[in-house]
Amino acid sequence: MTSVDQLLKTPIHQWHAEHHGRMVDFAGWSMPVQYNSIMDEHHQTRNAVGLFDVSHMGRLFFSGTGIDQFLDSLTTRRVAGVDVGRIRYSLMTNEKGGILDDVLVYHLPDSEGQPFHMMVVNASNREKIVNWLNEHIPTGSDIALEDRTLSTAMIAVQGPKANAMVAGLCSVNPADLKYYTGTAAKIGDHPVILSRTGYTGEDGCELIVDSEVALDVWETLMQSAVDEGGGATGLAARDTLRLEAAMPLYGHELNEETNAAQTDLKFAINLKDRDFIGRNAIVAANENPNLPIRIGLELEGKRAARENCAIIAQGNRVGTVTSGTFAPTLQKSISMGYVDRSAAEPGTELEIDIRGKRATARVVKLPFYTRD
Amino acid sequence: MNPEQLLYAESHEWVHVDENNGEKIATIGISAHAVEALTDLVYMDLPAVGTTVTAGEPFGEVESVKATSELYSPVDGEVTEVNATLPDNLEILGDDPYVQGWIVKVKLSSEDALGKLLDHAAYEKMCSGS
Fold it and tell me: Domains plus CATH for chain A?
């Protein structure tokens, strides 16, 4: 465990500490896991608006020529040739098809309307991905990568009231952006990168701002959020929200030992007429009936299965839980995990070994939760 | 029960010992501090009446949205009663951890473990981290 004073701090850190934020080490960052009740923070995001400091996520900016072809050679999803304004969720894989990270690739207009590329990566993978990208820049290319994680902040505004709330403060109404698009905008005098993205299963947007103005933007947003019946939301509720929406989390559903083909993220894997690192291994894994695949489980009772619990069918281990929680919106215990294909059909009844006691579970279609 | 008159384990369980027909009965719960630290309780697993418990060993578990925590017995003995209404009404632990929120009663087989428990002042000092 890293000692607290060695942890990285976001520009909003002091605010969290002053507002009951329980600060924990998350991927080397001191982050608020919760302020008060995880359930309340979860519900305020589903019902009104939750504000999340997600500045620990890595923000990488690219310059040079041929960036989209370069990125396209490293992502499971086609990111070359996409329109300016669009953002794509993709995996990055190694030669074995193992997942290095799940990322967002942005192709956005800057404040002068000039297109640029950036990428948001997981905090835990930032250094690895920076190195991976740098290693793969073609010889003689002028492509350069700038890691602006420490000079910027990122704030997610999520929930049914999020976009209308931000519309009252921002030069661009997020509701006028299509899903997974973004643009340069302003909050007051502060330039922001605004995108209609998120990780909660709710509508909403995310803002990237310079570190110096991050606290000011956060406090402005907070004032409106509280007026709307929402407020600051910690990483614990972010986890229950994303789990209900069945969004994978790196280090749980995704890791280097898991092939992209196993993840049930077909929308993020384009194999036709293109090449990228890991493609052939993903094609091979698609045809391998012995590889476990990602599924969702609903459990009987309120007890939650946690990571690494064994999944059992007729007395035999058929898989492993990767995430589980009591789901505040669904009021059920839910899990994601990987199981043999024979046990993956929705409706299949299985058992989960939770610290020595068996719980009955049923395979369900993902996501667990979809907003109206 | 008045929290100032209870004994506490470092693992945040409280104990109150009564004498009944020459038998020593310990009532056990978890402190308000523990409830506050856990937050968002959703599940509690209690032992059956008749279970033998050992000081320092788990006798049940309590689960919050975020994590599962074991309940450690502060005493040695045999469970004589469990608060069966508690698992379906975990909000009681937040509202009234020292009276309605009692968890189990244990007939002591030995009083040795009581000497290792903290009084209220010492427990408060531990919780405030000083």
Answer: 4-55+150-244 (3.30.1360.120), 59-147 (3.30.70.1400), 292-372 (2.40.30.110)
Residue in B with minimal Cα distance to A327: B65
Question: pLDDT tens digit string along B58-67?
Answer: 999 999 998 8
Nearest to B39 among A38, A301, A306 (CB): A38
Confidence of residue B29 (pLDDT cuts 50, 70, 90): very high
A123-152 residue pLDDT tens: 999 999 999 999 999 999 999 999 999 999
Using an 8 Å CB-CB cutoff, list chain A residues near B63. 302-304, 326
CATH number at residue B59: 2.40.50.100
* Runs of H (alpha helix) within chain A: 13-18, 38-47, 67-72, 126-136, 162-167, 211-227, 235-244, 279-286
CA A111 to chain CA centroid, Å, is 26
Looking at the structure of chain B, the number of domains it has is: 1
Helix (H) or strand (E) holding B106, with range, is strand B104-110
Q: Per the domain annotation, does B124 fall within a domain?
A: no
* Short-list A300, A303, A308, A296, CA closest to A361: A300
